[in-house]
């Protein structure tokens, strides 16, 4: 497609611009011209397909029972993960790729992107130490939100990591230990140490009340933000009963809602069932019920607006073949939709799903089959007005950011079958909502 060729040109120019040139100074004028061409194109080129009005008016997404509501009508979500958006917006020479990724998502009919709103300690941290921020990094997050708004994309912003990547709860525990006030050096003290709870609350307050330097809007008042995610994949293995994590979630969700009543809130769960759950047999193994979380119990907290589930059969099963994993995934997805239909009465979002290319039997065609299994179940739930409201693939990238890739990532337009499937799901969900209700790329794409 003409527009895809243009996108490739932009990315090639940006990649060339960033490469070291050694002593060949004659290339610099050429590179300067190339970067100008890229900038002009991204700002004004291919208006018919790629641009949406700056400052596109968005409304807050709300919840009514087990459905998302937008402007009084049900909303279903096809979206993706690009966790790297803030990190890649630090450098003016690379932030163009963030715009290209958001634009590409919009052109596939995607409406929500999940990304990190944290980087605690370490290299180019947002939070350098408790309550101390690098303004340059905060401005990078400002840029992500402003660009998302420009392209009609909403953001699911995650506030902290259970894992060590980008600091996570490990960094909070280190800070308390270094200051001599920590109760324990265990990572799980993040959930029960009063000093660390205070650190995290201060962080949440600063992020939610941040005034965007580009738009002038406080984050808590910006409908570009689809929802807040409390923590990515919480586990508290030191208390398998789940009581410690449950108490922490109750306290933190209440705190967030006391500051921001505009936005939806989810936990960031993997979807594992606890040891007391009648559905623990659905877990991928006995180990899954010993990690201190419980999908139903955690999600049943009043201030949790919608539930989240992750899908990684290759991490869970190392001895099963692809077909067996497929059958398990169908059961896993249906089980959580059933929970939300019958007991929780809340929407369920499958906020991460992916298939590793490192599996010994991996074939590229398996990804399409795997994605389709999940997306078909969600579509059927949505068509019946059920609680399965959407999914976010892990993860989409653009060319030139290999350092953020993993064994699940892909550039969607480089895999035509995935690109086609993604657009198909966007349009199927849009038709349920009513194409006459759609604006921008979705209406044009799906008509």
From TrEMBL:
Q: Where in the cell is it found?
A: Secreted
| Catalysed reactions, as listed in the record | Random hydrolysis of (1->4)-beta-D-mannosidic linkages in mannans, galactomannans and glucomannans
Give a yes or no for keyword Nuclease in this entry.
Answer: no
Q: Which GO terms describe its cellular component?
A: extracellular region
The reply on keyword Transmembrane is yes
Q: Which residues cross the membrane?
A: 21-44
SUPFAM superfamilies tied to this protein: (Trans)glycosidases
Q: Which UniProt keywords apply?
A: Glycosidase, Hydrolase, Membrane, Secreted, Transmembrane, Transmembrane helix
The UniProt entry, under Pfam families, shows: GH5_mannosidase (PF26410)
Q: What class of enzyme is it?
A: hydrolase
Glycoside hydrolase family domain spans which residues? 59-396
Give the principal location in a single coarse category.
secreted
Q: What EC number(s) does its UniProt record assign?
A: 3.2.1.78
One of the GO BP terms on file: polysaccharide catabolic process
A single GO molecular-function term is: mannan endo-1,4-beta-mannosidase activity
Q: Classify the source by domain of life.
A: Eukaryota
Q: Which PANTHER family match?
A: MANNAN ENDO-1,4-BETA-MANNOSIDASE 2, PTHR31451
Q: So what family is this one in?
A: Belongs to the glycosyl hydrolase 5 (cellulase A) family.
| Listed name of the protein | mannan endo-1,4-beta-mannosidase
Q: Which organism is it from?
A: Gossypium hirsutum (Upland cotton)
């Amino acid at each position: 497609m003409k527009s895809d060729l243009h996108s490739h040109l932009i990315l090639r120019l940006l990649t060339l611009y960033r490469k070291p040139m050694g002593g060949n100074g004659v290339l610099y004028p050429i590179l300067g011209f190339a970067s100008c061409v890229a900038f002009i194109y991204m700002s004004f080129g291919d208006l018919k397909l790629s641009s949406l009005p700056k400052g596109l008016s968005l409304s807050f997404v709300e919840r009514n029972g087990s459905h998302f509501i937008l402007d009084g009508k049900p909303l279903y979500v096809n979206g993706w993960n690009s966790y790297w958006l803030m990190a890649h917006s630090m450098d003016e020479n690379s932030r163009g790729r963030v715009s290209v990724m958001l634009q590409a998502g919009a052109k596939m009919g995607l409406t929500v992107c999940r990304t990190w709103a944290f980087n605690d300690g370490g290299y180019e941290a947002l939070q350098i130490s408790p309550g101390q921020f690098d303004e340059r990094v905060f401005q990078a997050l400002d840029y992500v939100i402003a660009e998302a708004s420009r392209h009609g994309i909403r953001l699911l912003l995650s506030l902290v990591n259970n894992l060590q990547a980008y600091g996570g709860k490990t960094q909070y525990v280190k800070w308390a230990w270094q200051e001599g006030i920590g109760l324990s050096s265990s990572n799980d003290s993040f959930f029960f140490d009063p000093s660390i709870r205070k650190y995290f609350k201060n962080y949440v307050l600063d992020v939610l009340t941040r005034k965007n330097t580009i738009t002038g809007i406080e984050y808590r008042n910006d409908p570009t933000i689809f929802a807040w995610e409390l923590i990515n994949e919480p586990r508290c293995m030191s208390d398998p009963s789940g009581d410690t994590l449950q108490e922490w979630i109750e306290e933190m969700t209440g705190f967030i809602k006391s500051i921001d009543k505009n936005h939806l809130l989810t936990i960031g769960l993997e979807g594992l069932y606890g040891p007391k759950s009648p559905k623990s047999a659905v877990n991928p193994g006995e180990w899954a019920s010993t990690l201190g979380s419980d999908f139903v119990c955690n999600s049943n907290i009043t201030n949790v607006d919608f539930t989240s589930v992750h899908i990684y059969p290759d991490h869970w099963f190392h001895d099963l073949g692809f077909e067996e994993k497929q059958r398990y995934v169908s059961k896993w997805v249906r089980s959580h939709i059933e929970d939300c239909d019958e007991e929780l009465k809340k929407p369920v979002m499958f906020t991460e799903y992916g298939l590793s290319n490192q599996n010994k039997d991996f074939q590229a065609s398996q990804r399409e089959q795997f994605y389709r299994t999940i997306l078909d179940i969600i579509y059927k739930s949505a068509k019946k007005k059920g609680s399965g409201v959407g999914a976010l693939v892990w993860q989409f990238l653009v060319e030139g950011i290999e350092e953020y890739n993993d064994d699940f990532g892909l550039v969607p337009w480089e895999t035509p079958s995935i690109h086609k499937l993604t657009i198909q799901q966007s349009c199927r969900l849009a038709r349920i909502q009513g194409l006459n209700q759609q604006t921008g790329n979705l209406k044009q794409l799906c008509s």
